[in-house]
């Protein structure tokens, strides 16, 4: 099931993004050459008391030309639409403003639980001032300091209380996937075409609190799939639905819930910044990735066209060299029948476990071809490697000193492992660890 979702709302400058960053912490990024997906974040996964949750900074969803008060209003609406629990932030330094009152009035009407955090209460003497905030009509104000990291525990304790009890484990063997891409690349057409191909649609499953609709179906081979609902599938006509930040946030949430992500590109338009951000996020999250180039029917082709397209994609998504590319047309249905089996194959590769003995043979052979690097007269020594996880396949390599494992050598080992085992479509992580 989807993680419970917390949304942070409030007028500008009260410290929303500071609190967001505190709560989200740093998502561990193992691969360093990914473009700045963690920069400028509005969506992240956090954890408190062992419960994982998604968190959205609605203040980061700017709505272009909308007037100030309208922006704040839409951000509050997004929170009410998307979240299970809302944290409204105000500032203990500046006191209550008109904008705070506007947000509070909207949230009072919401059925979602709201926690009122009064930020910038940096020292205990300031705590006396927070009682004014009872006037917002949102219950007890919680004093916090984003910059000093004070008081957040109490706010999160309260938030977790409102999470629904954990859903039962999902069905083993069901492959969850989503189609991600910019508006108009053909996601809905592909979805309809995939579902139309004489497969049995088992059910439409309503999302936890939102109106997201996931669809489950069984392929010809008997494999069960769950297609995760994605932004852009339904066009509800709300102002913010067409903004890029909102759509990126929705896409990230869908990716978090997926085993395999179908990154849909439009053959007519090529690759855009949006595509790179989303693909980078899926890569960092360790998801299986299939690159789907749609509208292939619209391209005038000669013998090299497909190759040129592939080269372009490889150039733009350097770190996705493991992701297969398929050229399809939702219109003519060209190659659509291949999609389920490709998704299934990628999912298998994500779950692949390799034996330690074979793995270590591969690593020793690799070292023989390309000796380990040295730094300041010291050579990296690799003692032993073992696979510690699947989804994505993760390998711990025991070494003399972690710092000696340079990125380029890590990459070399990855390539050698990929040559030996079928990890097509899945990122793999190689983590150096000092042998105790
Ligand atoms: P947002 O617009 O609501 O996302 O606010 P920001 O997180 O960008 O913070 C606005 C300003 O308030 C920045 O200059 C922050 O450094 C400052 N700020 C954030 N949290 C605190 C805090 O706990 N104490 C103090 N004194 N300043 C803070
Ligand atoms: P979405 O916004 O990504 O869900 O895109 P849609 O599925 O709504 O498609 C956008 C437009 O592209 C519609 O007019 C579709 O008919 C058209 N379209 C989708 N797939 C194809 C395709 O494979 N070939 C052609 N020629 N048009 C397509």
Automatic annotation (TrEMBL):
Instruction: Cite the SUPFAM superfamilies for this sequence.
Output: P-loop containing nucleoside triphosphate hydrolases (SSF52540)
Cited InterPro entries:
G_ENGA, GTP-bd, GTPase_Der, KH_dom-like, KH_dom-like_a/b, P-loop_NTPase, Small_GTP-bd
Keyword presence, GTP-binding: yes
* Domain of life per record: Bacteria
Q: What GO biological process term is on the record, naming one?
A: ribosome biogenesis
User: Which residues of the sequence carry a binding annotation for GTP 2?
Assistant: 181-188, 229-233, 294-297
Keywords on record:
GTP-binding, Nucleotide-binding, Repeat, Ribosome biogenesis
Binding of GTP 1, residues: 10-17, 57-61, 119-122
Q: Name one GO molecular function term.
A: GTP binding
The UniProt entry, under PANTHER family, shows:
GTPASE DER (PTHR43834)
Subunit info here reads:
Associates with the 50S ribosomal subunit.
Q: HAMAP family this protein is in? A: GTPase_Der
- Family in the record: Belongs to the TRAFAC class TrmE-Era-EngA-EngB-Septin-like GTPase superfamily. EngA (Der) GTPase family.
Q: Could you tell me what this protein does?
A: GTPase that plays an essential role in the late steps of ribosome biogenesis.
Give the protein name, as stated in the record.
GTPase Der
Q: Specify the taxonomic lineage.
A: Bacteria, Bacillati, Bacillota, Bacilli, Lactobacillales
**Per UniProt, what is the name of the gene that codes for the protein in this document?**
der
């Amino acid at each position: 099931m989807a993680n419970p979702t917390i949304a942070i709302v409030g007028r500008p400058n009260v410290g929303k993004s500071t609190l967001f960053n505190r709560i989200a912490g740093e998502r561990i990024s193992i691969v360093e050459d990914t473009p700045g997906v963690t920069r400028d974040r509005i969506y992240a996964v956090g954890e408190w008391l062992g419960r994982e949750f998604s968190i959205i900074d609605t203040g980061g969803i700017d709505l272009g030309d909308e007037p100030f008060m309208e922006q704040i209003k839409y951000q509050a609406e997004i929170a009410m639409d998307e979240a299970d629990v809302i944290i409204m932030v105000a500032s203990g330094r500046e006191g209550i403003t008109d904008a705070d009152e506007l947000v509070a009035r909207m949230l009072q009407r919401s059925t979602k639980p709201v926690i009122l955090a009064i930020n910038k209460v940096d020292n205990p003497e300031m705590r006396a001032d927070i009682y004014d905030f009872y006037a917002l009509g949102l219950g007890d104000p919680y004093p916090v300091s984003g910059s000093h990291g004070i008081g957040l525990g109490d706010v999160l304790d309260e938030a977790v209380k409102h999470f629904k009890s954990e859903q039962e484990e999902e069905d083993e063997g069901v492959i969850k996937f989503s189609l991600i891409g910019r508006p108009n690349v053909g996601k809905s057409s592909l979805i309809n075409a995939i579902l139309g191909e004489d497969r049995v649609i088992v059910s439409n499953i309503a999302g936890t609190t939102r109106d997201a609709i996931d669809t489950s179906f069984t392929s010809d081979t008997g494999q069960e799939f769950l297609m995760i609902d994605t932004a852009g599938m339904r066009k509800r006509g709300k102002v913010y639905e067409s903004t890029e930040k909102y759509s990126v946030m929705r896409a990230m949430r869908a990716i978090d819930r997926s085993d395999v992500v179908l990154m849909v590109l439009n053959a007519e338009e090529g690759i855009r910044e949006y595509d790179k951000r989303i693909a980078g996020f899926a890569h960092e999250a360790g998801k299986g990735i299939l690159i789907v180039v749609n509208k292939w029917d619209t391209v005038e082709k000669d013998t090299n066209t497909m190759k040129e397209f592939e080269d372009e994609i490889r150039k733009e998504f350097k770190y996705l060299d493991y992701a297969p590319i398929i050229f399809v047309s939702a219109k003519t249905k060209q190659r659509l029948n291949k999609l389920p089996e490709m998704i299934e194959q990628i999912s298998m590769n994500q779950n692949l476990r390799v034996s330690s003995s074979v793995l270590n043979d591969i690593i020793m052979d690799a070292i023989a071809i390309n000796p380990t690097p040295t730094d300041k007269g010291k050579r990296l020594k690799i003692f032993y490697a073992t696979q510690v996880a699947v989804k994505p396949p993760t390998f711990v390599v025991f070494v003399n000193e972690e710092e000696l494992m340079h990125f380029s050598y890590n990459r070399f080992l990855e390539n050698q492992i990929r040559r030996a085992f079928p990890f097509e479509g899945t990122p793999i992580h190689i983590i150096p660890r000092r042998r105790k």
